[in-house]
Amino acid sequence: MPVRLRQFMDAISFTDGDLIHRAEIVEMLRMAIERHWPLTCVTKKRNKVVTHPLHWVTIKPSSGTVSLSGDYATAIPAGQNATFRCQAGGLSFVFQARKLEVEQQPEDSLSSICEFNIPYKLVCTQLRVSLRVNVDSVHRIPATLYLTNGERLSCQLVDVADSGAKFRLDESLSPQLANSQ
Questions:
Q1: What's the pLDDT score for residue 108?
Q2: Counting C-beta atoms within 10 Å of the first and last residue's C-beta, which end of the chain has fewer, N or C?
């Protein structure tokens, strides 16, 4: 995993499944654009979920917009909210965004680039192959983390799987990680 992506993924918290801070949302969308993560618009037709492939173009935080392209993007009426899903590796996120009205394109323009508001929330899910057991909602299980520098940190077990475990700390790890090797 590239260093910038690893640092970002370590810095954000998926404990509640939502990213609501603008800077985190913008960074996640930038990452998706740079890495060409697959994007779809999700609709419901009768009782079935239908996905329409789209492409990331750019994000403009200063104007609060994200540009997408694809045949279905042009079919979404201006002012309407649409639901989007992006997935890469073990991470999936869903968001809603409103399509913006733009100045009329010349008739000879073949552009299928559409502008949408940057969403206010990304709902993130970590996809797993193995079962993850949530013990936090049932029991408070104390644990101790041992850092490479010998320091011990008290924490609580949140969940466990054969791929690893998740712990909750009551303090920030920033000082300890800054001094670790």
A1: 47
A2: C
* Distance from C-alpha of 172 to C-alpha of 162, rounded to nearest angstrom: 26
Structure tokens at 155: 């924490």
| 15 contacts 137 by C-beta, under 8 angstroms | no
Cα 22 from Cα 168, distance rounded (Å)? 24
CA separation for the pair 37, 15 (Å, rounded): 22
How far apart, in whole angstroms, are the C-alpha atoms of residue 110 and residue 108?
6
Residue 26 has pLDDT above 50, yes or no: yes
Q: What DSSP string runs through 57-115?
A: EEEETTTTEEEEESHHHHHSPTT-EEEEEEEETTEEEEEEEEBPP-PPPPTT----EEE
Instruction: Kindly state the percentage of the chain with pLDDT values over 90.
Output: 40
Phi, psi (5° rounding) for residue 74? Answer: -70, -25
Q: What is the pLDDT of residue 140?
A: 83
Q: Residues 119-133: pLDDT tens digits?
A: 999 998 877 666 677
Rounded Cα gap, residues 170 and 177, in angstroms: 15
- Angle CA 142–148–149, to nearest 5: 100
On the question of pLDDT at 15 being above 90, the answer is: no
